[in-house]
Amino acid sequence: MTELPRAGTRPTAFSARLPALTGLRFIAAAMVFFYHALWQRFFTSEEHQSTAHSLFYQGGWAGVSFFFILSGFILTWSVRPGDTVPAFLRRRFFKIYPLHLVTFAAALGLAAWLTPVPLAVGDAILNALLMQSWSPDIMVRSSFNAVAWSLSCEALFYALFPLLIRLINRIRPERLWGWAAAVVAMVFAVPLLARLLPDQAPLPPVNVTVSEMWLVYQFPGTRLLDFVFGILLARIVLERRRLPFSFGGSLALTVAAYALAPMFPSGYYPVAVMLVPLGLLVASCAAETSAGARTLLSSRVMVRLGEVSFAFYMTHALVLTYGHRLLGQNESWSAPGAIGVLALLFGATLLLSWLLFTLVEGPVMRRFATSRRRRGRPVTNTAETTGPGGAAEPTAARESTLL
């Protein structure tokens, strides 16, 4: 039996639309952009650099966790009637892999042109196959287009989703919160396991150890917990189980956790501290949006920005790194100049992401994401609509990836 099971009570045609989550995707991608901008040190003044660090340091960790949780949530929310495992895997492959290959090729070309270092063929193969996050070597995980490590995790999530959704659908509704609490406990246990690994050398730029960076943050097996948490939260919302906070309360909790997270030990602030607030943010946003609430996040502009957020995520590190080189590799600026450079590079990333969305993501999804037979069928499920690739994609969040 290859049909994907559906979770919980299906929303109505109106309530299935979750545009606010699409808007949130862009905010998460922007936070990752500004986090990575910190390491370029655009500000001459240490005071201004420190202020930027205080504002955006937690954003990179939180943004990736948000995407992993959101992936589990949206994939569960958007399972279609009669959907099959092969059809699901086909859509996921053509959603992420073509854009990965384009950005990987760009990173490979830029590195060969501008970096006088011999090509590491083994690293290139692992990156091309999205296997790099399984390596304990941080140089492998951060090579080429460094942010693609998260797709290595997503590949595992997608491969296991058909099994996970079957298992989680067997959980009785009244026990879902208990299982969610168990997943949170496991996430908090991961840093303890990281301390048992041999490499405890500090990693100065991010204030964690080498082992923590891998096992806590970048290892697919442990980041699977974020994804499972998202699946459980989707079932909780679909089963109409009570959430502890409204969207406003969840947002306040997320902001508080964001501010306090750097005060926690190094193994905990990258993932564990933000897990529950971010999960509740996603769940409460979905619950209120499905009930008809409309906010700035669900505006047309924010939805459009959310639709290009995957391409934005996949290109931003390359634009920051090589854009800085173009402007002067070791250059830094006063506050107005640095803010201007950031605005320029942010705009360039946004333009590039729109081009890739228009020329790569959309055409590939239209041409390859569904079988020819399915493309010829009318879309009869009112909870779904034509997405960027022409296939019946959920308006909710286009089956979000990271990313």
UniProtKB/TrEMBL annotation:
Keyword flag Chloroplast: no
Taxonomy, superkingdom: Bacteria
GO cellular component, as recorded: membrane
InterPro entries referenced in this protein's UniProt entry, alphabetically: Acyl_transf_3_dom, Acyltransferase_3
Keyword Metal-binding: no
Low complexity compositional bias, start-end: 382-397
GO biological process, one term: polysaccharide biosynthetic process
Keywords attached to this entry: Acyltransferase, Membrane, Transferase, Transmembrane, Transmembrane helix
Transmembrane region(s): 20-39, 59-79, 99-126, 146-164, 176-194, 214-236, 243-261, 267-287, 308-327, 333-357
GO molecular function, one term: acyltransferase activity, transferring groups other than amino-acyl groups
Ranges for region Disordered: 371-403
Matches recorded under Pfam families: Acyl_transf_3
Sequence ranges assigned to domain Acyltransferase in this UniProt record: 20-357
Protein name per Swiss-Prot or TrEMBL: Acyltransferase
Species whose genome carries this gene: Streptomyces jumonjinensis
Classification lineage: Bacteria, Bacillati, Actinomycetota, Actinomycetes, Kitasatosporales
